[in-house]
Amino acid sequence: MNLVFISPNFPDNFRNFCDRLHRNGVNVLGIGDAPYDSLHDDLKNSLTEYYKVDNMEDYGQVYRAVAYFAFRHGRIDWIESNNEHWLELDAELRRDFNVGTGVHPDELALWKSKAAMKPVYKAAGIPSARQHRVSDVEAAKAFIEEIGGYPVFAKPTVGVGASETFKIDNEDDLLAFFEAVQGMDYVMEEFIVGDIYTYDAICDKNGDPLFESSLRCVNIADSVNNGTECVIFVMPDMPAQLRDYGRRALKAFNVKSRFVHFEFFRLTEARKGLAEAGEFAGLEVNMRPAGGFIPDMMNFSHSTDVYQIWADMISFGQKRKAQDGADRWCTYVGTKDTFSHVHSHEEIMERYGDRMTMCRRVPDVFSEAMGNQLYMALLDTEDEVREYVRFILDEQAESVIPGLYR
Length: 406
Known about the structure:
The chain is an alpha+beta fold and 406 residues long. It folds into 3 domains: 2-107, Rossmann fold, CATH 3.40.50; 130-190, ATP-grasp fold, A domain (Dna Ligase, domain 1), CATH 3.30.1490.20; 194-405, D-amino Acid Aminotransferase, Chain A, domain 1. The chain has helices spanning 15-23, 41-46, 59-73, 87-96, 109-112, 114-124, 137-146, 171-180, 220-226, 240-252, 294-302, 306-316, 345-352, 364-370, 382-393, 396-400; strands at residues 2-6, 27-32, 49-52, 78-80, 131-133, 152-156, 166-168, 186-190, 194-203, 209-213, 215-217, 230-234, 258-267, 280-286, 329-335, 356-361, 373-379. Strands 9, 10, 11, 12, 13, 14, 15, 16 and 17 form a 9-stranded antiparallel beta sheet that branches. The protein has a 4-stranded parallel beta sheet with strand order 3-2-1-4, sandwiched between helices. α1 links the parallel β1 (2-6) and β2 (27-32). The termini are far apart.
């Protein structure tokens, strides 16, 4: 089997996907813009061959790289990046090289457009916030009046993560928003008071989950937009309604043979016509693994190897990796250098060092959202999670991330 992996060196932990494929006997053919000598040794050992291009955004260069691999190794069976940024590139290459696994360009709109997602949620019986495709100020005011007033939340129609999002609390904010995003494609939604939970899954060619997990992003948007510190935790299990909605979404969005990251709100205040407090509503779907170190957190939380599960799905169409231990809370606290804390790094390690699964500086590309210094620990109970977060973030914990203490 020949699999072309687009940009296998970024993010750094994606080399694990290549390693597990290699262990399964797959010819892993990498294309990237990094010099070969700069690649991690584990990645070098996983790749059958690597083709360096000068510019990954130049389709012609990447096309020629795949053509070279096809000439050298025969028919290309898979083209994947597991990266939101390269979804369109992956799809165009599949189309042009007649690769039948994975989506082609005409199928991508449903996955990338936040406006296109709404009818799919509705058809699947999953409630989601009412939405307005931003055009002009008067139309926005009419929408805000229709849903009962401010606040509203605006975000790019096609976008990744929490960057370039706006909470609009009044007319002054609305006018400032229109000034900031002139000519850009945005959607506006009714503001939901709730916490973000995710449904993460690896599904097979029929859209049935081989692995499922859930994490809570306590304050990623605040971390990006307001400069606060970051807390994420992968839970030992997920609520039944979330699992049901996640599986419905897999089918409704026609997801096959992918690692996905779906986001949902769990309402902390009832919203008329949407859901009661404690119930879930769809937020958005992402057809790639959760970002940063979250795949590693899933491994720690569920005593498994999601990289291997994904590689086995690609190689064999089934799950072969069993869970090796109990499910626990894997908790990530990302501190920022701009904050001072009561407890020093040494005190944190003295108290929680035997629980730490990872402790390191965060690459600059992720630090705005995930902090400059990460502390990742494996804990047994939700009370231990709260105590751990309080110890690291001290008096800021409850004011900065109140969602953790509801």
